[in-house]
Design brief:
mainly beta; single chain; twelve-stranded antiparallel β-sheet; 2 helices; ten-stranded antiparallel β-sheet; about 5% helix
């Protein structure tokens, strides 16, 4: 019980000690260079079900090329009291990541250092982005935001080509639990005209007491303040429209209205990632790092505009939208 409390209050840490199968856990590192020309997602994790193994996924956001690197499960190691993950010779933590991938499909070597991380606030009542839901022991999937925005330094060599990340920006989040949801939309950008801005959010079908609902969590971080819209805060979805080209999403609470228009970008730049079910890493998830998001935060009742901006290098996933739109919000 004490360990469960400690890990829940530290969502970046490995949560899987003592967890029964089926179980997965994965961390998502987004890396964008200073010129916003090179964009990568590096996703290390562990899958404990029918075919247990550790993995590192590498998504090139410019080309859409995605690689899934498998490792024996015993090559996965995690510290008990800090964010420190190792898969073979690859290491991931709050200070950076070191990669030593050498397979016939891809080679990735080098180190990227992280600085000035901006974590989602954690309190006893709301330990991270999931709020009090983080304490519920029966959730299908848990979510954490480790850093909304931070600096990058260092470089990677990908298939012999140098990728410099000095002066770039990064973002880190994670998921863990039994399985990815049946359907979801996820989006994120920390590349706005105004520095120090990040938007991250998702809406998904949440199983709950023999029924299901569309649960959502959205955070807009501006000038050191985090504006939260979530099922657990009492916010409501005023509009959700999903087309082949865009996602239109409007949320409201007693104080603010948040309007989001995410445009998907070129289909050729989508990469196909793997996601967990209870049996296998079997979901095929399309993700782009070339979407754009138009954001407006306005005071309730048509009041003044608190923030308006356009985010670039946005991550966007839309999975099974028909089911999502067919479930009650």
């Amino acid at each position: 019980m004490l360990r469960r409390v400690r890990t829940t209050l530290n969502p970046a840490w490995y949560q899987g000690v003592g967890r029964q199968r089926p179980y997965f856990e994965g961390w998502y590192f987004k890396l964008v260079d200073a010129a916003t020309q090179q964009r990568y997602a590096i996703i290390p994790g562990l899958f404990k079900s029918g075919d247990p193994h550790a993995f590192i996924q590498v998504l090139n956001g410019q080309t859409g090329a995605a690689h899934y690197h498998r490792f024996a499960p015993e090559l996965f190691w995690a510290a008990e009291d800090k964010f420190d993950i190792r898969i073979g010779d690859n290491r991931f933590g709050a200070d950076g990541l070191t990669l030593a991938i050498d397979t016939p499909e891809q080679t990735v070597r080098g180190a990227v250092r992280l600085g000035d991380l901006q974590p989602w606030p954690v309190t006893l009542a709301a330990p991270g982005i999931m709020g009090w839901y983080a304490w519920v022991p029966t959730m299908e999937c848990y979510h954490g935001v480790i850093s909304l925005d931070h600096t990058l330094d260092g470089a990677l060599e990908v298939d012999g080509a140098a990728v410099e990340f000095g002066g770039g920006r990064g973002y880190i989040e994670k998921d863990w639990g039994q399985s990815f949801p049946q359907a979801w939309v996820w989006l994120q950008s920390n590349h706005f005209q105004q520095p120090g801005v990040c938007l991250t959010g998702s809406i998904a079908i949440i199983p709950w007491r023999r029924t299901a609902f569309n649960g959502f969590i959205v955070g807009l971080w501006v000038d050191g303040r985090l504006y939260r819209f979530a099922t657990y805060t009492g916010a409501k979805v005023a509009e959700l429209a999903i087309t082949d080209d865009a996602v239109q999403w409007v949320l409201r609470d007693k104080s603010y209205q948040l309007s989001i228009l995410a445009r998907r970008g070129a289909a050729s730049q989508y990469g196909l990632l793997k996601g967990p079910t209870t049996l296998e890493m079997g979901k095929r998830v399309e993700e782009t790092l070339t979407a754009t998001v138009e954001v407006e935060l306005r005071e309730a009742g048509g009041g003044r505009v608190v923030f308006a901006g356009n985010g670039r290098c946005a991550g966007l996933e839309v999975y099974n939208p028909a089911a999502l739109l067919g479930t009650r919000i």
